[in-house]
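Is adenosine-5'-triphosphate placement plausible here? Inputs below.
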Amino acid sequence: MQHFDKLLELLNIEKEEDQRQYQNQMVLTPLSERKKKGVSWYPVTVKSTEIGTGENYYISFERVTELRQNHSFQVGDMVSLFNNSSKQGKKSSISGVITYVKRDAMRVAFSVDELPEWVEYGTLGIDLLFDAVTYKEMDAAVRKVVSSEDPRVIELRDVLIGKKKARFLDKSELPDYYEVATLNESQNEAVQNILRAQDVAIIHGPPGTGKTTTMVAAVKLTLQQEKQVLVTAPSNTAVDLLTKRLLAKGVSVIRVGNPARVNEDLIPFSLESQIAQHPDYKLLKKIRRDADEYKKMAAKYKRNFGKEEREQRKLMFAEASKLKHEAYALEKYIVDSLLNNTQVVTATLVGSVNKFIRYRRFSTVFIDEAGQALEPACWIPLLKSERVVFAGDHCQLPPTIKSFDAAKGGLTETLFEQVIKKQAVDVMLKTQYRMHEHIMQFSNKEFYQGELLAADTVVNHRLFAHADLQGEMINQPVEFIDTAGCGFEEKTMAETGSKYNPDEAGILLKHWIQLATQLQLAEPDMLKEGWFSAGIISPYQAQVKHLKELFAEHPDLTEVAPWTDINSIDGFQGQERDVVYISMVRSNDKGKIGFLEDTRRMNVALTRARKKLVVIGDSGTLGQNAFYQHFLDYIDSIGAYRSAWEWMG
Ligand SMILES: Nc1ncnc2c1ncn2[C@@H]1O[C@H](COP(=O)(O)OP(=O)(O)OP(=O)(O)O)[C@@H](O)[C@H]1O
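Reply from A.M.:
I modeled the complex. Tokens:
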């Protein structure tokens, strides 16, 4: 099938590029360089070793280093523990997942029956590892979709790629007419669409429209018809959020996935932890220990032994193997009884191949953040489901893709987007609960055909409630500060090629100090914990870094610093702040805007603010692009234009 052949080809291109970037960073770089780059720790010392639930060992390491060195290790990353000892002859290694990491300490979970002996000798080091498993699972899923003889898989596949029309029950055929009192009209429409869908339904959720609220309500109602559903998303963070929201609504949930990648609050709801709490778990542990003992005893017989010892050794191995089978059967019994008694199983898309649910079938799979999910990853849970509900927004961030060719070839186009185009089964949520209407309106016109409405609670909310400030510019919901003609040229970071603009950052800082000072005077309560939040966004990493340094050094900002996050656009996806600044950076004679051409990404940045959005940029450079010219026209139409000259001198 042409569609899938192409998909496999693109996935392979992406994998090769990912691997190439990884190899450049790791394999082709000597250890001393890798250490400098922060992708290897060497040497490390073992601080402690613990046995976890299931077949897991946790080892805590400390890095031996004279310098304060940064690193790129994060919780959830795959790493390789290696032994560089010359006695060993060849390099030995095992892989694991980071469960905790600080500047010079980390804890890693290893899924092994036993730790290799070399862990106790020689000099150890840790490398960041390329995650090939994810690609393998995606590739296998796509191949299975093509070759499947399961009539339901074939049917669902044909609907999703647009060869067959999606079917819906008539409203009158719904068991009951559902209307959730706490949901608004379009949210209720989306829920009903889901209840009627026989193949696929789509919630299209523009920023702040309560996509998660709607999805949780839909899951609850679906559970009145179906015993159990699978709820997934591409990232662990999104799955954790959904798990929390479902638990808060009284739904029983088991979170499946590597415990090292699950948020700590949710560990009690993880399958591993539930297994450990099961009444038969003690017995399971005992059987496993006994099996281990037999294996160890059998292994003690060395080379020169007679017939009798040989027989004994054989018996011990047989006993160990019998006990292992018993343990396996008991574990399966425990897992099945836990899974059979939960309403929802949550996992990431790729995590739904987890050994405990690999062969389980589900009536419905919900896929959240589907606008960011690679098509091959979606097929993993789809293969085990009768029907699918996608939720997302294809007008916000697309999936992250490393290969330019794979992206150009179409790997960025999600299944979510393809279904919207081919089946037109999406219901868009139309009331947003985040932005003042002036903040919402530009994005609304450009991306949502002007169909969005601001809820009464936010339509005119302002930063300052104070009457004296009502008409003031500082209290306007949108400001654009134009740096055109100020000579604020963009600069390029030599090592990374990322752009930054120190003069623009300077203006941003001045504006924020002015605003923060007014805030402190007018609304002292706002600065109490949890009352107020601010975000500073730049599409360029180099500018993010520069802004962070600038803010850290500034004495006037100590009070507001805890409420001000500075990050890239991707770092703010799904989040909101009372005040948001965007530093556009690009300022050049040629009108080159690079990254900023990605208007979907800019849509995310422009829709994070609740009460005030300040955009700083060069209209001369930006205005050469149609999208930004529309933005500048919009700025004029609401009287939000200011010149950076006001802050100069
Ligand atoms: N029907 C509703 N009535 C009142 N408030 C609502 C309603 N639906 C959602 N909200 C509010 O809107 C906000 C965003 O909702 P929610 O967290 O479900 O959205 P999300 O899907 O996570 O975010 P986004 O819409 O940006 O993807 C929340 O504060 C929520 O309480």
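Short version: The chain has a mean pLDDT of 90.
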